[in-house]
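Complex record, two chains
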Amino acid sequence: MKYKKILIVDDDPEIFEVISDFLRPRHFKVYRAGDGAEALDFFKKTRPDLIILDIVMPVMDGFQLLEKMKAHLSYSKIPVIMLTVKNQGPYLDKGISLDVSFYLPKPVKLQNLLMFINLILKRIT
Amino acid sequence: MNKTIYRVARTRNELEQGFGLVYSEYKRKGYIPKGFKSKLRISLYNALPSTTTFVAMQNKRVVASVTLIPDSPLGIPMDKLYKKEVDKLRKQKCKVAEASQLSIDTRLFGKGFFSMFNFNKLIFIFRLFKLVLDHALRVDGITDFCIAINPKQQYLYKFLGFQQIGPLRYYGLVNRAPAIAFRLNLQGLRDRMQDRRGAYEIFFGKQTDPKLFNNKFKMSPKDLNYFFVNKSDLFEKAASKQLKIIKNCYPVKGMDKIIKC
C-alpha cells in the first residue's frame, strides 16, 4: 500500500505524538507543523494528502491557515480534518464555510479519526 | 454492528415499524402530546401514492426510517410553519419535496451522540440520506429538497450543503418542538460539493443501486383503512378538501366507505 502523507498542524506536541504513533504503523507518513505559518512553509517542500488541523495556535491559527489555503490554487484542494476543542456552533459554522472535510472534537477516539481519514483518502468504500 | 440494508419500505409491516419508530423516538423527545391515541406517527401525506418511506433494516427490523414527500395539492408538511418560504421556491418553478419523519432507533448509537463527530452514526445517516436524495433526483425529478429540523441538528445539514430558508419557529401549541427550515438545491450539487471532500465521498463516491427503489409498498384501500381509520383518526379529523385530494389518488372501488367526503 502506498504511504499517504498527513500533516498535523497543532501547537501541542503530545497530540502529534499520540496520533502519529497510531497512524505510522498503518501506512501513513506523519509530519508536524506547530502553527499555520509553519504549515505554509511545509507546503513549499511537500504537499500532504491530508491535514489534521487545530484552531487555537500561536502566530497563525487554524482558520487563518484555511483562508490562506483557499486563496491558493495549489493548496485549496488539500482535504482538512479540523480537530479541536472549539466545537461550538460558531466554530462549526466557520469550519463548514471553509469547506473542511470533517470537524472532530478533542479528545478524539483514534479509531474514529482513522475511519474519517480512510474515507477521505478512499481507503474504504 | 449488524449488516444494515437501506431501501424503500416494501411491506405494510415495514411501514408500520417505521411509523412506530417515529412515534417512540418523538415520544422520548417529548414531542407527542398527551392524549395522543395512536402508537404510530403518521400524517395525511403518508396516504399519498407519491410519498415514499425509506427504511434501514437490520435482521428484518426497521432501525431507521425517513419519508420523502414530493409537493402535491396537499402541499408539504413544513407549509404549516414555512409556507411563505416554500411558496417562494414554488414561484421560482422549483420542484420541491420534504424529507420528514426521520427517526433512528436510539439503541443503535445511544442518546445525545452528536452525529457529525461519530463516524458510524454519520455514515449511517448519510447512507439513508443518499438513498432519499438519489430517489428525489432520479425517480421524482425533484430540484429542491426541503427539511424542517431541530436547531441542534443544523450543523450536520449545513455540512451536507443545506442552506437555511426559514427562522426558528415552533411546532404545536403544547409541545412546541423547535424547528428551522433548510433547503438543498440539487441542481449542480456535485460541483458545489467538490471542495468538501468528506460529504462528497459519501454522496458521490458510490452510485445507489436502482434496485433499492424497486417494489415500493403501495397502499390499497385496505391499507388506508388500517392506518388512517383503525390505527389513527387522521381521516376522521382531516378537512374535506384534504380528503378529496387523497381520494382522487385512488380511483378504485370501495373508497367511499373509507373516505367520507
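Note: DSSP finds eleven helices and seven strands in chain B.
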